[in-house]
Amino acid sequence: MMDTTVYIALVIALITTAAVLIIIIHSGQAISVGSGSKKRVTSSPIFIIAGPSGSGKTSLFNLLTTGEAGKTVASQIASFSDSFMLPSGVEKFKFALIDFPGHVKLRQELFTTLKASSNIRGLIFMVDSTVDPKRVTETAEFLYDVLSITERKPQAIDIMIACNKSESFTSRPPTMIKDALEKELGQIIERKSKDLKGAGEDDLTTVFATSGSAFKLDHLEAAVQVCAGSVLNKDIDPWQAWLDENATN
Ligand SMILES: Nc1nc2c(ncn2[C@@H]2O[C@H](COP(=O)(O)OP(=O)(O)OP(=O)(O)O)[C@@H](O)[C@H]2O)c(=O)[nH]1
Ligand SMILES: [Mg+2]
């Protein structure tokens, strides 16, 4: 009689452990975005939209979540959706989609989220392709800050550099934007590595695989793509295809 009770208890314990493990594996790690009454918690796989102010991130967020870009103003807080379904519907489960404000003083929340979460499927780094590549320094510094977190994670986060506003006659082709960013990133990495070596910290040239040669985005641990698109014209196929591809990775 005693033996049967112990046996049943053991079976129940085993089933409970298995169920908990399955839930943990499928839900990933819960992360929270924002604070106070705006605090949101998700355990779904996450896609992030980041990049400089005015590049069109909230417009893309609206287009992906509602089908219309709508009118936007400069964001002061992150836009958050925890019921984002993939454009193609290849995966039936829901994703979290988070658009972070681009203003330089509002970037900390993005960096904290990037550091804290282990469940990020990809990051869209949106840039305004109508901005003169000669003025790319600030954008490259922002991208450097993002990469110095994402490249250090056990599994580097894949990145889509989305060159928005391609319908504008002043827009530059993605190849030109990529070249300008790589050149600028190379200089930042070199400068920071020298500073850090002086302070006895780890050499960034190894993180960014640049020692001796010119920096290329292809050298990174993560897969980085650079594609043009226009939220205004709802011409965002390459970015949607990238979301689909990364969702199943
Ligand atoms: N020409 C053009 N304008 C666009 C496009 N996408 C967005 N915009 C405009 O660009 C401006 C900035 O767009 P937002 O989506 O607010 O930019 P954001 O990146 O969210 O900016 P922050 O919230 O300040 O970080 C708005 O006036 C949009 O209407 C596009 O594809 N083409
Ligand atoms: Mg915005």
TrEMBL record:
It is found in: Endoplasmic reticulum membrane. Keywords: Endoplasmic reticulum, GTP-binding, Membrane, Nucleotide-binding, Receptor, Transmembrane, Transmembrane helix. It is a single-pass membrane protein. Gene3D superfamilies: P-loop containing nucleotide triphosphate hydrolases. One of its GO terms (molecular function) is identical protein binding. The keyword Transmembrane helix applies. GO terms for cellular component: cytoplasm; signal recognition particle receptor complex. The keyword Membrane applies. GO terms for biological process: intracellular protein transport; protein targeting to ER; vesicle-mediated transport. Belongs to the SRP receptor beta subunit family. This is Signal recognition particle receptor subunit beta. It comes from Eremothecium gossypii (strain ATCC 10895 / CBS 109.51 / FGSC 9923 / NRRL Y-1056).
